Amino acid sequence: MSKTTNITIKDVAQSAGCGVATASRVLNNSGPASADVRERVERAARELGFSFSAIGRALQSRRSMTVGCLVPSLANPVFAEAVQGVQAVLLGSGYQMLISCSNYDAAADDAAIEMLLAKKTDALVTTMVDPDRSPALRLAKKRGIPISLMFHDPLDGFITSYVDNFEAAKEVARQFAGLGHRRTGFLALRFSTSDRSRNRYAGFHSECRTRGLPDPVLIEIGEAEANQPDLLAAILAQHPALTAIFASNDFLAIAVQKAARLLGWRVPQDLSVVGFDGIEIGRLLEKPLATIETSPEAMGRQAASSLLTMLQGGDTVQLPALPFAFRAGATLALPNPENGDDGRGATRPSPDLPAEPHAQQG
């Protein structure tokens, strides 16, 4: 085949004797491939004259060469790392990224997608409050815009890059049970509008029942309680029997530790705390945080690789969940046998405490 500017990734895959998704992973350096397959794909690309920049030049008249990236917040390092993963894969592809943040607001999600569509973006990678109910996302799909979701559990009709929240949360229940905790709680922010939080609770609840533990207490809080330790402390004081709390993300787990100190509770002697995400700051605390560790950067890479495959005309299939691991930290220990239902004297939180940094959602 002669070198032309209309060579596609399908041609490269066919010449290399592999699937389009495999060729995309090799050319984007965004996933595993054997040395033999990698050599075949790279040789085929050279011989055919394929390059993403050449494709970009060929499509300039029909495409904006932009990818819209919508996340709830860049203040949360989980989403910032995912965006970096997207950017790493797009680098050198000829595509530029437009970033928008919604601050965990469904209406802002739709407004952002409408803006990105108005700017003729060629593809979307998104993390949203409720993608299944988003009219703007349905409009983008109807227009044939390639879409890749991040962090959400698989949703019919969409390619999703994710960690299995249900299975990961079961591991937290196993850790609690293994140490002898029976009176546990799940702390969630905006529980009703976060599929991630709901699935984490469902997995935690399921494994507690499997192990014969009482159902975990669901503690739902708002922005004010998440951001003000004295308010959160007042809520925790209503649950003095709990010996362990699973927070739906690491920032909430850190907030729990601050609130516990106001109550005179020691972590982990009086209250074990486990988070979710594995943000780096959790390692740097005086007591490193026990948490479910994930790789948001790998999630972003996987999502962007799927988009490039779709943009080059390749078919995509739902990939398996990305791996997770439990990080023990120093906030998880055996329950204190002296702590009965009334074994901890909860002090009244002071209303005059200085403001604390804002908690972030996951």
TrEMBL record:
Top-rank lineage group of the source organism: Bacteria
Keywords (A to Z) from UniProt: DNA-binding, Transcription, Transcription regulation
HTH lacI-type domain sequence ranges: 7-61
Classification of source organism: Bacteria, Pseudomonadati, Pseudomonadota, Alphaproteobacteria, Rhodobacterales
Molecular function as annotated in GO: DNA-binding transcription factor activity; transcription cis-regulatory region binding
Disordered: annotated span: 333-362
Gene3D superfamilies in UniProt: 3.40.50.2300, lambda repressor-like DNA-binding domains
InterPro entries from the UniProt entry: HTH_LacI, LacI/GalR-like_sensor, Lambda_DNA-bd_dom_sf, Peripla_BP_I
CDD domains (alphabetical): HTH_LacI (cd01392)
A Pfam family hit: Peripla_BP_3
Protein name: LacI family DNA-binding transcriptional regulator
